[in-house]
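Possible regression after last week's pipeline update?

I re-ran a chain I had predicted before the update to compare outputs. Posting the input and the new output here so someone can diff against the archived version. Not blocking, just want to make sure nothing changed silently.
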Amino acid sequence: MAVSEMGAEQKPTELATLITALDGRPLRRVLEIGVFQGGTFWLWRQLAGPKGQVIGVDLREPRCRPCDEGRAHSSCPRARLRELGEMVFGDSHEKATRRQVEKLLAGEKVDLLHVDGDHEDPGVAKDVDLYAPFLRRGGVMVFHDVASDAYPAVKAFWRAIRAANPHALEFVSEPKDWGGIGLVPF
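New output (post-update):
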């Protein structure tokens, strides 16, 4: 199943290039800040395998009218996220949310940190400050919307990271006014 069919908001060509860049890297533990519909959360589950740990943080559970109304149904977005990994619902900037992630990790470090939550200034930097300490040495930090004119704070934050890190990689495909994925070895 294609990752775009699972609800990924990233451009397929950018995700394909990211997957190639990650080839050979161990991804036993992944932390995603900003899960939204769960498309990349699904991708991390595939890359981490059934024994890997995938943790997602999002502001709120996805809407599901049948669940809210107590009706039986299939293809529930809430159930899908729970099947893919461990979810923490809450503001990523709150200490309580960070503590829940810390508890789930039980002292372990993540191999990949995907930052795609708060797209405003200083929210992007705050997500990095709060969750980068969970990233192991040799791991990677991934950002989305690094080329997006709609999110100037993310774009500016990424430019600063890329300028300071000669090993940073950027994957941007046409049209170049939205999307873009950045990868930084840690």
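Follow-up from reviewer: compared with the archived run. The chain has a mean pLDDT of 90. Marking as no regression found.
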